[in-house]
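From the methods appendix. Each design record in this collection lists the tokenized structure first, followed by the designed amino acid sequence. Records were kept in a plain field format so they could be parsed without special tools. The example shown here is representative of the layout used throughout.

RECORD:
FOLD TOKENS (454 positions):
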């Protein structure tokens, strides 16, 4: 009877709900594995480098992450157009959108890398990063390699947009999990056989290269098998469709810019005003408490394309019911957050030993931040799925500037350090939550007009 009930749970109900449930359980297992890999990577990385160099690597990685905006929203645009046209049964046009997206992002990345190589000749990365932990020449080589691999990844990770649009969240997570595994294995082998060979340069190259290799392999595999009918081709590139992708994609682009400013400047601000060792403290607390975000987003992610499908089919009751269930999940995770805070000291002792000291206040503030931040995820995924992003763009644009100003005040002038950065992110998240919920309420009840309906 127990087995029958489990099977009924995953096989009965609305077909869209069944698909989402299967994706959730598969994705959850894979992402749990990915989280485990990331947790194993932290003590290994600190052992390979040390707390200061690891903090510097995290800062460099954050700066590179800023350039994710240069896909100008093509990934999200492709995801929504793919899901929308598949829901309408327009299969042929999907290949046009896929080919156009791949062609466009390849041209953009090629030009950006050429521009970077020119500009890089005039940059002093030691001054930018406020560090002398690595020589100027070695740091410059590291930055060039990381940028190169990053732009290749920006192109090849479009396969994940295709998988997510087709509600294959499990497969998208599998690709990322394999990449993380390769990084861990490669670093462990180098550390085990010759620790002295793991410099910041080799560490950075391995961490950047391995995921790229996996993404390239994933593109070859999926476009030669289940997505053969959508394989990108130059003869299907229609530049006039770039406008369709960017019409929606440009909104996601603006959102990406704002979110990168809000969430990715933390490492840089802490590194510059409080030292690279505090970047490590910040990221360890953030990584630990991000388990909350991991669970919620793992369950919410399959709903994005599900909301797209349901909205265009006018199945609003299904959307309301799904949002209600996701809110119950959020409340449960708030209780779990408190448990994590209580047991944080024991966890850090097991995880990293005495290598880095994490203050209790930092853990508590980080837990509060994730409770506030994850509240809006279900509403945000709904609005993203149906392409109504205007409110999010305006409010996040204001908050991006606001966050930098108050973060610098808290970290530098009030000398709150890491806690100041986290507190500024909490304050930034609250108004965003309010506006996101109000827009969802208006849209789902067919009361949205003007900017609320855009």
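DESIGN:
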């Amino acid at each position: 009877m127990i087995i029958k009930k489990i099977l009924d749970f995953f096989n009965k109900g609305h077909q869209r709900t069944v698909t989402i449930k299967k994706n959730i359980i598969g994705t959850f297992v894979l992402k749990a594995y990915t989280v485990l890999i990331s947790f194993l990577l932290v003590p290994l990385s600190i052992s390979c480098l040390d707390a200061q160099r690891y903090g510097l690597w995290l800062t460099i990685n954050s700066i590179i992450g800023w350039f994710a905006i240069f896909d100008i929203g093509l990934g999200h645009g492709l995801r929504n157009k793919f899901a929308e046209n598949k829901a309408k049964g327009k299969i042929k046009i999907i290949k046009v959108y896929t080919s156009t997206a791949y062609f466009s992002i390849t041209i953009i990345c090629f030009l950006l890398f050429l521009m970077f190589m020119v500009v890089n000749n005039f940059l002093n990365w030691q001054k930018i990063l406020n560090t002398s932990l690595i020589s100027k020449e070695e740091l410059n080589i590291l930055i060039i390699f990381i940028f190169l691999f990053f732009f290749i990844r920006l192109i090849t990770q479009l396969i994940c947009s295709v998988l997510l649009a087709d509600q294959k969240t499990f497969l998208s997570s599998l690709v990322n999990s394999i990449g993380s595994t390769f990084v861990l294995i490669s670093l462990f082998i180098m550390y085990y056989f010759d620790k002295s060979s793991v410099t910041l340069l080799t560490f950075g190259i391995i961490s950047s290269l391995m995921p790229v290799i996996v993404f390239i392999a994933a593109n070859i595999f999926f476009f030669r098998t289940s997505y053969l009918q959508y394989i990108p081709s130059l003869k299907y590139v229609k530049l006039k469709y770039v406008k369709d992708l960017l019409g929606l994609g440009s909104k996601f682009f603006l959102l990406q810019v704002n979110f990168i400013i809000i969430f990715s400047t933390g490492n840089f601000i802490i590194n510059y005003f409080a030292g690279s060792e505090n970047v490590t403290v910040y990221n360890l607390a953030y990584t630990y408490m991000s388990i909350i975000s991991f669970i919620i987003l793992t369950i919410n992610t399959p709903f994005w394309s599900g909301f797209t499908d349901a909205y265009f089919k006018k199945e609003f009751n299904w959307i309301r019911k799904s949002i209600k269930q996701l809110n119950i999940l959020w409340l449960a995770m708030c209780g779990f957050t408190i448990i994590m805070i209580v047991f944080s000291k024991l966890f850090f002792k097991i995880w990293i030993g005495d290598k880095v000291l994490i203050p209790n206040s930092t853990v508590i503030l980080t837990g509060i931040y994730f409770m506030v931040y994850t509240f809006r995820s279900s509403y945000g995924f709904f609005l993203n799925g149906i392409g109504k992003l205007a409110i999010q763009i305006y409010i996040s644009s204001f908050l991006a500037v606001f966050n930098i100003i108050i973060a610098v005040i808290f970290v530098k002038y009030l000398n709150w350090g890491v806690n100041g950065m986290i507190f500024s992110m909490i304050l930034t998240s609250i108004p965003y939550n309010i506006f996101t919920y109000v827009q969802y309420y208006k849209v789902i009840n067919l009361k949205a007009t003007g900017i609320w309906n855009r």
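APPENDIX NOTE: The radius of gyration is 22 Å.
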